[in-house]
Design a protein that fits this description.
195 residues; Dihydrofolate Reductase, subunit A; 6 helices; 26% strand
Length: 195
């Protein structure tokens, strides 16, 4: 069975977004990245196993697909963008009850029962499924017990308030799969739900 991997940047105090307009992530969409070379290399290694990307409607409409399509053009001149090339090549699935059809290349829209749709993806052929979306989308997947692996990119920042992803499902015990710190200050921790 394929794994559903939720990747999320968050602050040290567990927030994934701020209500205030302040730069806190070491890397946001764009070319300005404070990630060190080892982190960039490891990030690309994760994408080597991914062949499907599950997106929230909001993430798709905010320009995720267009942005990474443009970024992929920088590869192979800039080796960091190997993952962007993988995003372009991967099957994309947008979860939405509002969209009737996809307007993006290599992308389809699914609607209705999110757990049923995700289970169908996981039962299919292929590599791992990466999930990208905002706090609400991530929270819904977590609350439904659909996430097989959490990859949490802990930024060296304390926000004090904002949006969280672990607030709907109640108590859950996680098993640490690995954790690694990087010279730029990022700590990447990988967890799976404890059985």
């Amino acid at each position: 069975m394929r794994k559903l991997i939720l990747q999320m940047q968050m602050s040290v105090d567990g927030f994934v977004g701020s209500d205030e307009d302040r730069r806190w992530q070491l890397w946001e969409w764009g070319d300005d990245s404070a990630w060190d070379e080892e982190l960039k290399q490891d990030f690309n290694a994760v994408f080597a196993t991914v062949d499907t990307i599950l997106l929230s409607r909001k993430m798709a409409e905010e320009g995720y697909l267009a942005h990474w399509g443009n970024a992929a053009k920088k590869y192979p001149k800039d080796r960091f963008y190997a993952f962007a090339r993988r995003i372009v090549e991967a099957e994309k699935v947008v979860a939405s009850n509002r969209l009737g059809a996809s307007r993006w290349e290599r992308t389809r829209v699914v609607s209705g029962d999110l757990p049923r749709e995700v289970d169908a993806l996981k039962q299919g052929e292929g590599g791992d499924i990466a999930v990208f979306g905002g706090a609400g989308f991530a929270s819904a997947l977590i609350a439904a017990g659909l996430v097989d692996e959490f990859q949490l990119f802990i930024n060296p920042a304390v926000l004090g308030s904002g949006r969280r992803i672990f607030h709907q499902g109640g108590f859950a015990r996680l098993k640490l799969l690995g954790s690694k710190s990087y010279a730029c200050g990022m700590v990447v921790s990988r967890y799976a739900p404890a059985q």
